[in-house]
Amino acid sequence: MSSLTPQPEPPSPPSTARSSPYSEPPLSLPLPPLLSRDDSRVLVMVGSGALAPYLIRAHRSVRPGIEKVIIWNRSAAKARDLARRLAEDEGGTKGGKVIFEHAEVLDEVIGLGDVVSCATSSHDPIVLGKRLKQGAHLDLVGSFIPAMRECDDDALVRGRVFVDFEEAKAEAGELVGAFERGAISPEDVVGTLVDLAGGLKVGRISPEDITVFKSVGTAIVDLLAAQLAYETHISGSP
Questions:
Q1: Distances (CA, A) of 125 to 74, 142, 150, 160
Q2: Minimal CB count within 10 Å: which of 7, 177, 203, 217?
Q3: Region Disordered: which residues (predicted)?
Q4: Structural contact between residues 164 and 218, judged by C-beta atoms closer than 8 angstroms
């Protein structure tokens, strides 16, 4: 990256804030190679909103062996539409390297996912831990306040749980509720994004491990994304 011209030192960013949806994909990008299995073949995308295409792209970029993407949404029509658009971008349902499908019933496909990525605004758990296969990786990036929840306690009990930042323990509905119910404790959270990236914590010990990553987003990622966009612009890169 090029260096920016001298400028006043920016104020310290807030510790956590969900300032824009664009804060999520950058956080998820470095994590699949640390948490998901390198032989992952099937990605189940839970949710078909604005974040879904970016998350699918992120997982595929680090797991090129993914052969099938199954999309589920409460609105089957929206899931079907996203699957169609992605297939067209890929070169057609039959001609593309990856098969894109939509699912009518989530419980029927969760167990197929080597990677399960959730980006919904659900207030009730929609991913049940008992449905996850051994060795699966679960991303939870949709909920960001204590009232929201994308998975049940069993998913956390079964998994090695990581968070983007420590503040997630007080903000993520999945974690806050699980702590209150005694399903897991804050000490059961293995580590943070920094711990993983710095090699301070091991993401996956066994191929049979279920790994869980919970992100609530942070404003600092928006600042980094803005700086990257600016530097890309002034460098003339596409």
A1: 13, 12, 4, 18
A2: 7
A3: 1-31
A4: yes
- For 113, the domain range is 21-216
What CATH number is attached to the domain comprising 166?
A: 3.40.50.720
d(CA 204, CA 211) in angstroms, rounded, equals 7
**Cα-based angle 140, 132, 20 (whole degrees, multiple of 5):** 10
- 191 in a structural domain: yes
Look at residue 222 and give its three-state secondary structure.
helix
Count helices and strands (H / E) in the chain: 9, 8
What is the per-residue pLDDT for 4? 42
CA distances (Å), 176 to each of 15, 55, 170, in order? 18, 24, 6
CA distance 100 to 66: 11
- The Cα–Cα gap between 74 and 212 comes to 22
- Dihedral over alpha carbons 138, 140, 141, 145 (to 10 degrees): -170
Give tens-digit pLDDT for 106-132: 999 999 999 999 999 999 999 999 999
Please indicate, yes or no, if residue 4 is contained in any of the structural domains: no
Report the candidate in 131, 130, 149, 153 with the shortest Cα–Cα distance to residue 140: 149
Task: Provide the β-strand partners of residue 43.
Answer: 69, 115
User: Alpha carbon of 19 to those of 150, 216, 222: distances in Å?
Assistant: 20, 11, 8
Q: Is residue 5, in this structure, part of any structural domain at all?
A: no
**pTM for the whole structure:** 0.79
